[in-house]
Amino acid sequence: MFKFLKEVVAGSGSGLKDFPYTIGEPYASAWGSWVHHRGTSKDDGSSVSIFSLSGSNPQDRHLVAGRNGVKRLRTVRHPNILSFLHSTEAEVPDGPAMKHTIYIVTEPVVPLSEKVKELNLGGTQRDEYFAWGLHQISKAVSFLNNDCKLVHGNVCLASVVVTQTLDWKLHAFDVLSEFDANNEASGSPMLQFEWLVGTQYKPMELTKSDWASIRKSPPWAIDSWGLGCLIYELFSGAKLARTEDLRNTGSIPKSLLPDYQRLLNSTPSRRLNPSKLIDNSEFFQNKLVETIQFMEVLNLKDSVEKDSFFRKLPNIAEQLPREIVLKKLLPVLASSLEFGSAAAPALTVLLKMGSWLPADQFSIKVLPTIVKLFASNDRAIRACLLQHIDQFGESMSAQTVDEQVFPHVATGFSDTTVSIRELTLKSMLVLAPKLSQRTISGSLLKYLSKLQVDEDPGIRTNTTILLGNIANYMNDGTRKRVLINAFTVRALRDTFPPARAAGIMALSVTSSYYEMTEIATRILPNIVVLTFDPDSDVRTKAFQATDQFLQIARQHHEKLTTGDNMVTESTGVQLKPGNAGLLGWAMSSITQKGKPADHGSISAANASNSQVSATSAATPGIGTQASSVGYAPSTSSSLDQAAPASARSSVDGWGELEDGNVHEENGSDKEGWDDIETFDDKPSPSLLSNIQAAQKRPVVQPKQAVANSSKSNQVKAPKSEDDPLWGPIAAAPPKSASKSADIKPSTSHNDDDDLWGAIAAPPPKSSGKPLKAAPAAANSDDLWGAIAAPPPATKARPLASGRGRGTKPAQPKLGAQRIGRTSSTGM
């Protein structure tokens, strides 16, 4: 007996004081004398169902039966039995009188009769859904009869309700009683409240109140008959009016008819056990039932079975009722992924099903699972999330991305797998707009700084592309510190041609962020060098970018000329939105944004020649080409490597960049190169100059040998040789040195095509004679002869005899050694 709650709020039956639920509108139908209401929780607003039963006095027999139902529902737990939440009994005013009412609060459900009308299914889809529902109710009845030795007593359409996930559940436990088989001779009623059951639903033995026969029958005899009544009402679409109507089998599916007839056998002992119906019925063997059953025991399946199942699931889902897929399969699939029992292919199915939901429902039913999956250590799931991030990225809030998603995604930047690093990089195109400035400057740019020197050329290229895309999400200070350094000092010097092309286009598209001084001193000089790049696509883009930035400079000049002193610092050529054209370069897997009309030529040039879409695996041909081209020759040669080892980053990875290395200077006003002279000291030679410089690289050795000789006889090297940076350039003019060492240095002055020869040629004027004076000693294969000949002021042949060292054998004919011996004789 429940404790009565005497305190009520006058005037409203739904205004129970201290009742933690709000009672809403009732449904049109319910079992027995109960009223089924919609309801909500006062604590969190969640939906519930509230069943109420009223009587004139506490001893009303309906209330007594109702209390039995409450007790049974509270104590019996099964997945296919209605879940109990709360109950209470109170006196509620009903006009001048007081009415006693029992309230039961359960999970939110809908009467089966109303849900069937709402779904309005037909044909195969209806039969498949009914099969799944009957399968669930049969399991509930089997649990009561076989496991608990209980008899429900009134299984019918009204005693079944449907959850929000379209699962069927059994309730109406007012008649529920233990099966008493001990007193077979007893004539006392076994079902105390059997009078609540309609006559049309009673089997013959119950109609006759033959309790002795009932006790001799199996526990499922009465409820098997009830299952037959439920089947009839389902497929006929009408409430059972009389027992004789059960003989009308025209609406029963043929695959279910044999089982239907066995359930309604006139002999109680021969009626079909519900457990046998579950295991053997042909009607339950369909796609929907098999799919749901597989997913319910997913954690017991091996990986091969899971992969096979999830690869077939998208096609199966297309054939099932859409509402059943979204309300039943989708929650089960999300739960399986969340708790780790589903494999990575299930994520693709989840996203496909989620695409059928409205945006608000997607955020409620799918997005929370996806956010949790970002913390997974399964690489396959992480890769799948990153591949499909464009499908759900827009649905995530900025706070969720910044606090819950990005910390997990960022681990992919340093992953040992190239594909994960590349997918992580590309995902930033979707996530970056939702990141805070603190995360962008303090975390994201550190990772991008390292990726710009990644061993994989495709990732280096895509990093440049990404920086161009997210430039408008950086603040002004970050843009000034990062963009020019990243695009000129790194991207334009990369040995991978598509990376250089990406750097050029990134500069073009972000031109609105640069001041005129930066364009003139840092951007144009770096781009012009690439107009004679070995790669034709790089040259094409370099010319286009040069024209663009010259146009900006020309506009700036015209403003100054016309006396316009209000020259804005933003000098871009109307390339807004500033980043739109970058998507087509390397990120082909991500939806391309609209490109501005002014930048169409650059985008078209890119699409035609160098698909910068770095596939994270450069072909052998491209790798060979990249390794043979060096755009920023320097003494450190760190940028000449195809895969720099690491980036020595500062606080955010973009300190002062010189010669491709990152130095930490947090307080410096100068970012990147200090001034343009640094660039002038390190010009980029043509392809022929590169080859010649490589052939004559040992030219620095004679300089060391000369340093050991006396000052009076030392060879007067060209003035530019005092600067070690000119060594490789000075070596370039002797293009004809391989033909003969007798050629006068004046011939190098006549080479109009060699701009560096004109610089290196003047110093040898004073040593013209010595070069011609020792033709016999010079070997045509000895490239050092032309340099070694000038020192001998006495014009002696230093190697003609073995003097000066006693009987020591003559040394090999190397120019540096001849110079040393001649100078010693001169002393």
What is the topological layout?
Blueprint: E1 4-5, E2 21-26, E3 35-41, E4 47-55, H1 61-75, E5 84-94, E6 97-106, E7 109-111, H2 112-119, H3 123-147, E8 150-151, E9 160-163, E10 168-170, E11 177-178, H4 204-207, H5 211-216, H6 221-236, H7 257-263, H8 274-280, H9 287-296, H10 303-319, H11 322-338, H12 345-354, H13 359-365, H14 367-373, H15 379-387, H16 389-392, H17 398-409, H18 418-431, H19 437-451, H20 457-469, H21 476-490, H22 497-509, H23 516-529, H24 536-561, H25 583-586, H26 600-608, H27 620-627, E12 656-658, E13 661-663, H28 676-680, H29 687-695, H30 700-707, H31 727-730, H32 755-760, H33 768-773, H34 785-788, H35 815-826
Parallel strand pairs: 1-5
Antiparallel strand pairs: 2-3, 3-4, 4-6, 5-6, 7-9, 8-11, 9-10, 12-13
Helix pairs in contact: 3-6, 3-8, 10-12, 11-12, 11-14, 15-18, 18-20, 20-22, 21-22, 22-24, 23-24, 24-26, 30-35
Give a quick set of tags describing it.
six-stranded mixed sheet; elongated; Transferase(Phosphotransferase), domain 1; 44% helix; single chain; disordered C terminus; 35 helices; disordered N terminus; alpha+beta; 827 residues; Phosphorylase Kinase, domain 1; Kinase-like_dom_sf
Task: Note down, in words, how this protein is organized.
It comes from Digitaria exilis. It contains 35 helices and 13 strands. The protein is elongated, with a radius of gyration of 44 Å. Among the domains are: about 15-110, Phosphorylase Kinase, domain 1 (2-Layer Sandwich); about 110-285, Transferase(Phosphotransferase), domain 1. It has about 850 residues and is an alpha+beta fold. About 45% of the residues lie in helices and about 10% in strands. Residues about 1-15, about 565-585, about 585-650, about 655-685, about 700-790, about 790-805 and about 815-825 have low confidence and may be disordered.
